[in-house]
Design a protein that fits this description.
Layout lengths: L6 E5 L2 E2 L5 E2 L4 E5 L4 H17 L11 H4 L5 H7 L3 E6 L4 E6 L1 E3 L3 E3 L7 E4 L4 H14 L2
Helix pairs in contact: 1-4
Length: 139
């Protein structure tokens, strides 16, 4: 979410050759006004995109800041807070992890940082409300 709280970027990640999650050029963007249900639907769509193409290829490779038209990572980090959301398919839960800004270089999480878990079968509105709550804890 940007600092004006009027834009949220959903980035579908993919696994690189080492098995690490990597940013792609596959983004969905919510512009205000948006409802929790709108955000929940976009999050569900984002995970569908991840499932359809889970591995990084040249066609979907992309630096998020460049994909959304921001010149540098440091400018992006100043403008946006980040929440990492994973789908644990074994437990059938979404795990929301509010991220902390790391200087102007990116975002990080530390052991013991707060997480929110909700069932995968939650209503879209609950998924979106949980996202908004998670953004409140991002720094």
């Amino acid at each position: 979410m940007n600092k004006n709280k009027d834009s949220i970027i959903f980035n579908s990640l993919a696994k690189d050759s080492l098995g690490l999650s990597s940013s792609t050029n596959r983004v969905l963007i919510a512009q205000a006004p948006f409802t929790p249900e709108d955000l929940g639907e976009l999050l569900i769509q984002t995970f569908k995109i991840c499932k359809e193409a889970p591995y990084l290829t040249e066609n979907i490779k992309g630096n998020l800041h460049e994909v959304v038209g921001i010149k540098t990572v440091s400018q992006f980090v100043k403008e946006y807070v980040q929440v990492m959301i994973t789908l644990d398919t074994d437990k059938e839960i979404y795990v929301y992890s509010p991220m902390k800004r790391y200087k102007t270089k990116g975002y990080l999480r530390e052991k013991g940082d707060m997480e929110i878990q909700i069932p995968q079968i939650s209503l879209s509105s609950v998924i979106g409300e949980t996202l908004m709550k998670s953004f409140e804890w991002s720094k």
